[in-house]
Amino acid sequence: MSRKLSTGPEHVIRFESVGLRYGQRPEVLEDITFALKPGSFHFLTGASGAGKSSLLRLMYLGQRPTRGLVTLFGQDVATVPRDKLPALRRRVGVVFQDFHLLDHMSAMDNVALPLRVSGVSEAEIKKHVPELLSWVGLADHLNAKPPVLSGGQKQRVAIARAVIARPDLLLADEPTGNVDDSLATRLIYLFEELNKLGTTVVIATHNEGLLRNFPHSRLHLERGRLIDPPPLKGA
Fold it and tell me: Fewer beta carbons below 10 Å: N end or C end of the chain?
């Protein structure tokens, strides 16, 4: 796929000829080039093993590329001083496949964590966190800790935590994988509402029903390369 990029801070994130390998193995991502504008919404698709999770890790600075240029909010991530990285990462909300919840903290406190790190008042936290947890169907589980929650409930706590601070960039790795189709649709609506407020959204998914019902732009990976997305079945 031919991609010509303009330069400048108008891109939330930008990759140029990026490659990634682990150790001495062959590259798992090869010559990745794309740019996402502020307020855009994208699905990231591809078969298992195509490199979706690796690409997301590069996007949230969980991994450095082996080669190529990655800029986040106009800053070259290779040259950002180490003490500036936490502030940069706080502008990115991430929904991980394995949730990354803190088991010793309640659902309420897990979701409130990004707000507390940012210095939001407890009054604001007590107002907004229960509202969001109620919206994702967890009004009766505010004080429950992750070990007693189901996989789907943990997923919803992780999503609430990722969106509560209205990040500039939201990355979600299979965020609807542990919920039924009805709730999956509702969660995509939540991501769309956040997108309308200006957040750039990237959602990795295998769910072709969601892709048909929500016809957003697609980034499609095949064997570590970005290619034009194939047509959806039944579309």
Answer: C
